[in-house]
Amino acid sequence: MNELQERLAWRGISRRGFLKYCTMLASLMALPPAAGQAMAEALARARRPAVIWLPFQECTGCLESITRSHTPTIEGLIFDALSLDYSETLMAAAGHQAEQALKRAVEDNAGRFILVIDGSVPTGLNGAYSCIAGRSNLDLLREVAPKAAVVIAMGSCAAFGGIPAARPNPTGAVAISEIVRDKPLVNIPGCPPIPVVMTGVIAHYLTFGSLPELDRLRRPRAFYGETIHDRCYRRPFYDRGLFAKSFDDEGARQGWCLFELGCKGPVTYNACAHVKWNDHTSFPIESGHGCIGCSEPGFWDAGGFYRPLSAPAGPLKLAAGAVAAGAAVGVAVAIANRARKGAARAAHVTATVADLEKADGGER
Amino acid sequence: MSSTALQAHNSTRATRGASLERAVEVLKEVIDAPIASYFSSCVHCGLCAEACLFYTETGEPKYTPIHKLEPLRRVWEREYTLLGRVKKWLGLSKPLTDEELGAWRELVYDSCTMCGRCSLVCPVGNDLVYMIRKLREGMALAGHAPPGVVAATRRTVEIGSPMGIRWPAVAAQIKHVEAETGLKVPIDQAGAEYMLLLSSMEIINFPEYLSAIARIMHVAGKTWTLCSEAFEATNSGIQIGVSDIARVIVARVVNAAERLQVKTVVSPECGHAYFALRWDGPNLMGRPFGFEVKHVLEVLDEFRVQGLIRTEGFEEGRLTFHDPCQIVRRGGVIEPQRHLMQMIARDFVEMDETGKYNWCCGGGGGVSANEEAEGLRLAAFKRKKAQLEACGAQTLVTACANCRIVLEEGLEHYQMALPVVGLTELVAKHLAQDDGRRQDEEG
Amino acid sequence: MGLEAIPVVVEPADLAAARAVLRELAVLVERLLATGEGGAIDLGVLPLTPAARAWLIDRLGRGEVEIRLTAGGQSTITETGCAGVWWVRHGNEAGVVTSELLEVAYVPGLVPVSRAEVENGLQRLNSGLDGLN
Amino acid sequence: MNALEFLAWVRGPGLDLALAVFALGVVWRLIEIYTLGRKPDLAPPRRVPAASGWHTLWRRMLPPPGMFRRSPVSYVGGYVFHLGLAIVVFFFIPHIQLIKALLGLSWPGLPSPVIDAVTVVTLAAMVVVLIDRVRRPVKRYLSTFEDYFVWVLTFLPVLTGYLAVKHLWLPYTTMLALHILSAELLIALLPFTKLFHAFTAWGSRWFNGEINARRGVPV
After folding, report:
1. Where are the domains of chain B?
2. Which chain A residue's Cα is nearest to C5?
3. Residue C91: what pLDDT?
4. H helix or E strand, kind and range, residue C126
């Protein structure tokens, strides 16, 4: 029995249970069913790949999402089964020991390790807004990233800047992709991201030696290919024009569409509506709250969580002034026009039949 | 030349004779809110072309009514819109040139009878004929009115009638009518109820109109008169489009009617004459009149309603009525002719598009006086020809001497044997002599 | 009021996709007979409406074997009326179906035990026997 | 700028700007046009029932006798695309939401499949109308750059709206933002192009109706 399976078995997860999980993973990633088997074999075979997890400007929500699921999930186990060589939040070591561990992990696995980052990178004041052991995140990232095999930006902060980068962005926070430009990088946005997405990406990498197909924003297409709205079970209500108007009205009780309450489902690419959360139990819309679009770039500044997508994102500041300006221009033109017309009328010389032919016709 | 000298030169140029400057000035004067609204509304849908017989019969896109108004539009845009003026300052729009205006003569005069049919079909509601009338103010003062129309206008102003007829010719006709009917034709009779006007065309070509009127008035027992100083009803000033001249012409009639203290001035069987006097007249004079203006058809229909005239017998065969544009579509006299036709025709058929939707004869708005337009006019006549053939009429009745002569020429050109008759004459022809009032008088 | 009370519109069955699944199953069964190698169709990634899915399951019918697997939640593997075609539903610990497949095989892939597991079993048997002694 | 920022811009400052230009333009142009004045008609009017500016406002929506036959494409195409635009603009629920947010007015919308169908028909009608413009000699003769430009200006919001809703070509967020942007262009340029007929056609019809009504002709 191989190492991974031993670990799994130790946690009470059988070979069949693991195979079943891989089948589900393949299905989620829209890979053929046979890929499930291949993934299971690949994961079992794999030499423990080293993983270095660096937390930057973040809230630890992403890590929580993966490690604190209600039962010992396979996601957590796979993660555990990998060699998590450095994670400040999880590791027992602290202080100089921790620094030492990072240094060793990077050196020992140079060119082979998976670098997972959660949180954005502050660039203001030369990165001084977020430091670990006296070194800025920016500095650390510039040192570690070039030695990684692949970089996974976990969560919206790492992927797109997230809340730290929201206006007015005092720390000059940027996405990882702004700094790491020459490594295979996958974004797994979400606040937090769905845990299975990360395992899917790692499983894919271990099975096929490559990242899954990514979209323009470097998100795995299999999970971010459709909007919440596309897969939402409330979609039929949208199509029929049935909307909840407030969170406690009859429409809300009837489970009608939450578009008018500001749901960002139509512009949010994520898998919540079909993968769901908490072991496939539910997702925010199912709990009666509209999608806030947390996995989209710039979601925090996208015009308010409770404003319908079709409503103006901000107050109209110019309209009143424009009406006044229009009236002013109009009146000015009107006065000028009346003056011109008046001048033409004043200059009018009564026409006679003599004026029907050109006076200068014969003179020249 | 110094700039002051140039200005002085320009201003003298602008006040004497025709010139582009005068044209632009007068267009600036006549452009008003409706015109601004119309030009702002046009979407270039081209439907007005489908209502214009000069387009439908030639298939030439340049005869599209809105296109004929391009010079007016340009003056409006340049002078009365901010964007137009900005374009002007930036040198993005070219000023109107005399050559351009000259090139437009064919479109504004030769291929437009001011029939106003386009004004009825425009989906955004543009009153195109309203604009053509105003554009002609400028065209005429730029010296681009057709020579034939200029000559007719000159004769109207200088001699008193577009065809150059003077009172003696009318007096001769009167003698002839008096001899024929045995009725006196009153002249310059103050206090008469009706003052009759004539059109030159009637005096020369259709003297039967005067005798018909004499007999009808006699039977109806109404007092009426002709005026030796204002017998001519037609107004070339309107057709050429110069209000100042139209005012001079219309003033003759107004002054005469007020001097004779008549109650009603009766416009003869002539379209533009009616429009000039009834609808443009008070606006030209700048005041309402002290008398009423009616078309002879309205007067006859009133007599019919009041029982003052009755007819006996009917015309043979199938009759149809050609609605003169200025009386019907532009004048609002729509029903009287139909009642009168019913009096004298057993088989009266309407043409397919009739009443306010009639098709013009092709000779209105000065076109019949414009020799250069003859070919176009005959081409446009194909519309009327098709209508007449479709309705199968054997007699064509109308109530406009100008229409009548244009119809006769057209029919002759296309070798159609179809008599054209004035409605007043037909009513007079069937006038019942045993009228109640007349019997009373005799008794 | 539970989520089950939230009405969801049942769309009319669009059977085109379901018919395509039947055709593909036939191809897989033919291959199974010819080469011994079957295959599977993942119902989760197909655009099947609930009605079309129901129609498909109904068409396939029920066979004699039903296997229940308890590993990280309940899974059921049901033989369909077409021998060699198995209807596989994997559930998680909360009882939610997480994936659903139609597998074409003599014996579904998850069912046989592996050599390592048998060796493990033998070890346990031996140690158990030791304990008894 | 990412797609969501782009969307937020068009929904926020972009919309504000477009509506401001629209409001400025409409007020200015209406004053510019309707203060040019006109002389009162001194001829005593003839009173005829149904002859008035108000009647013409509505009567001009129907083709006069004989006209439909002469240019069926103009009428059918015109009706379909004007009505289609009105339905899509005023009865698509997100649009009603926008109006509600701006003006506080709202009314029931139409189901999405209906809007989808109307959109396709509207797009088709606009294409037909364009082909008619190119192929009919009169329309081609009258057409200027502005006519084609304005066609594009009107066509784009409908097209991008459809593409966005149907998730075609570009990601929904980008397409939606492009849709809103194209609609904003349309709104902002409306007062300065022939699209202004949406406002002045009513005035034009009224003038025409009133002028002719005085003479007793219901036009």
Report:
1. 3-144, 150-304, 306-429
2. A254
3. 86
4. helix C115-132
